[in-house]
Design brief:
The mean pLDDT is about 95. It is globular, with a radius of gyration of 18 Å. It is about 30% helix and about 25% strand. It has one domain: 3-Layer(aba) Sandwich (Aminopeptidase). By secondary structure, it is of the alpha+beta class. The longest helix is centred in the middle third of the chain and has 15 residues. It has five helices and five strands.
Length: about 170
């Protein structure tokens, strides 16, 4: 029984999408995924990819994935890596696959001179929280995630303030 980690290719787009859907179901949002195989191919495997992806296989079977991208810290003046998704199928958990995926992303970070690797975890996902603590991960509870959805992003980009109902501006 062995685990291998490899870089994803365009031929993995369907499997990546299956992993994304399984992760969304685990995170109690099964209907939230609108990504397509074509979007993953376009955005992850072109001349300037927006993300990179690793596939974990256990005895040749797809077992999990890590999808990440590079960011930049102005404070340390160095690149970093943000892990968007880290997921292992339930039947392959507790085999060290999540650790292997994180280890490979960490190695990529080190190879690229990154000073940070970060990700998010849902506050109710105690097995993952305990796992990340065991790795020495720092939890930054004072930071809040801020997001504009596509409608608000478009509104802000075209001169609006993002408030659909605010007529006073």
């Amino acid at each position: 029984m062995s685990t291998s980690i490899r870089n994803a290719t365009t031929e993995d787009a369907a499997q990546i999408l299956e992993f994304i859907r399984a992760l969304a179901a685990f995170e109690r949002a099964p209907d939230a995924v609108v990504a397509t195989e074509q979007a993953l191919i376009r955005d992850g495997f072109g001349k300037h990819p927006f993300f990179h992806c690793l596939i974990a296989e256990y005895d040749g079977e797809p077992a999990g994935f890590a999808l990440y991208f590079f960011n930049y810290s102005t404070w340390v003046g160095r690149p970093g890596i943000y892990i968007e998704d880290l997921f292992v199928l339930p039947q392959f958990r507790r085999l060290g696959i999540g650790r292997d995926l994180l280890k490979r992303v960490a190695a990529i970070a080190v190879e690229n001179g990154c000073q940070r690797m970060q990700w998010q975890v849902l506050d109710w996902n105690t097995p993952a929280i305990d796992f990340y603590r065991s790795l020495g991960a720092e939890f930054m509870d004072e930071w809040r995630t801020v997001r504009l959805n596509s409608e608000m992003l478009e509104r802000l980009a075209t001169g609006g303030d993002g408030h659909a109902e605010d007529k006073t501006a």
